[in-house]
Amino acid sequence: MGRIVLKDVKKSFGETNVIPPLNLEIDDGEFVVFVGPSGCGKSTLLRMIAGLEDLTAGDVEIDGNVVTEVPPSKRGLAMVFQSYALYPHMTVRKNIAFPMRMAGIDEETQKAKIEAAATSLNLTDYLDRKPGQLSGGQRQRVAIGRAIVREPAAFLFDEPLSNLDAALRVGMRLEIMELHEKLKTTMIYVTHDQVEAMTMADKIVVLQAGVIEQVGSPLDLYHAPRNKFVAGFIGSPKMNLFEGEEATKRNAHTIGIRPEHMTVSKTEGLWEGTVGVAEHLGSDTFLHIHETGLMDMMTVRVNGDFAARHGDKIFLTPDENQIHRFDAEGMRIE
Amino acid sequence: MAIVAQHTKFSKIAWPVLAWVVALIFFFPIFYMVLTSFKTDADAVKPEFLFSFTPTLENYANMTENYDYWRFARNSVITAVSATIFTLVVAVPCAYAMAFNPTRATKDILMWMLSTKMLPAAAVLYPMIFMTKAAGLYDTHFLIIMVLSLINLPIVIWMLFTYFKDIPKDIIEAGKMDGLNTWGEVREILIPLAWGGIASTALLCFIFCWNEAYWTVRLTTTDAATLSKLIEGNRAPEGLFFGRLSAVSTAAVGPIVVLGWFCQKQLVQGLTFGAVK
């Protein structure tokens, strides 16, 4: 079981209010991602759930029990750190065994669990090595192994892939998702990478300056961002947001259109502009358009290859059903 | 090219030569002391006998038989070892607290501790003598251990703090998640990870304690007197007993020189730690 409820949790460092009173419910077995720009308080929130950071006010509940005053190790949670945080003086085997040794689990059970974890994480050959002799990916797997053997109520991941190179990151992302499928344990995952959030989460919590901007499934956030911040943060490349006549025409203060929701033509269209940089990825082409009169630079995504060069005239037509409208406060207009 | 080659050749010869000269200058007094300790007092003062003399163990025999060398040596060992242990017992938790749970005052506390080293010892000499005598602590092991501990605590805390700062906080927090209490963190993570640092700090502390002379000479008479006191006691104003004095001095610095020789690597590591990273 791993249902986690945050009730009016608040965190201040001296005079600075990092997290204003905040409420959140995480269901058992859910994969929840906290996402937001750096300094938005997502890691602090995770650490408050873990018990590594004191709450200024409010309560954390795990499976119905208030754990606000309970020390980290007694909360039944396991954490995977960005820096892996392995014990460098212990072998992989001892690292994985460590939480079990602390919990006073007998050696036979320890051995069996280490074997099982090592097998599922491809670490069997490395059990007698020290962390210093492992690659980044292997270290992160050891950290996950150390978390698994505790059979926690929930896993907490604090930007676990940030220290890995791009290729490894994609691989580890899949491994963590597979792990979630297998264990069905609650996982809370902190990242600043919205691609990780979109691909991994059952539920995304978008944070800005300690405030929850929106909670929802990845596609909810993509299709119906609650405000301009979420609209701009979720999706890659970013949504084009602009004010002006085009917005007023549609009864809004600001309108937004995603790069993939416009058709491009060299002859006709609603908006006209000049091609700046064109990024040819093969599968897609990203065009950065200037001089549209709408905003400084507009991004368009075209499926497949599109022959366009710097300085070409170009016409854009938005899919009217995909235009997001926002009021003067930046909130979504339905 | 020729100039560069010449330059390299020059530095290849000049630097080692210079290094040897400096080393010999530093080493000579010790060498001279050891040499003198094997001379009779009469030979010791004659420059023409610098190298040509009949070696004798008379001074050493005299020292152990008549001057109770072993009692002073025992006191030195007892006070230096105890003070080192006590200092570490206080300093490790202290440095741990400041390294991993710093507050806004931590920096000031560290500076304040260091500032206590700036107090001229002579300024508190008489109060110390009167107070310790009144308290019945004068010339006791306990007093010397306390004094040695207190004068070394600031530097030891600073050194340990620097070592501990280098241990990632995440590892300590992972330990917290895995079920360690504060003492567990120190025992399972801090000490194993900072072992090299703690060892070299302990070694340095021990050397400082062993070499301390200002207080050990002035706060003891016989019971707690260390080797520094023995040397002091053999310093005759007439300056006639160089052989004897040299023997006593050699026997006093001998153990620490041997210890330092074996632990050179750790010591250098300890002193340059943090400076070259």
From TrEMBL, chain A:
Residues 4-234 form the ABC transporter domain. GO terms for molecular function: ATP binding. It holds the Pfam family ABC_tran. The keyword Membrane does not apply. The keyword rRNA-binding does not apply. SMART domains: AAA. SUPFAM superfamilies: MOP-like, P-loop containing nucleoside triphosphate hydrolases. Belongs to the ABC transporter superfamily. This is ABC transporter ATP-binding protein. It comes from Thalassococcus lentus.
UniProtKB/TrEMBL annotation, chain B:
It comes from the Bacteria. PROSITE patterns: ABC_TM1 (PS50928). The keyword Cell membrane applies. Keywords: Cell membrane, Membrane, Transmembrane, Transmembrane helix, Transport. Residues 73-263 form the ABC transmembrane type-1 domain. SUPFAM superfamilies: MetI-like. The keyword Repressor does not apply. The chain crosses the membrane at residues 13-35, 77-98, 110-130, 142-161, 189-210. This is Carbohydrate ABC transporter permease. InterPro entries: BP-dep_ABC_trans_perm, MetI-like, MetI-like_sf. Belongs to the binding-protein-dependent transport system permease family. It is a multi-pass membrane protein. It is found in: Cell membrane. Pfam families: BPD_transp_1 (PF00528). Its main location: membrane.
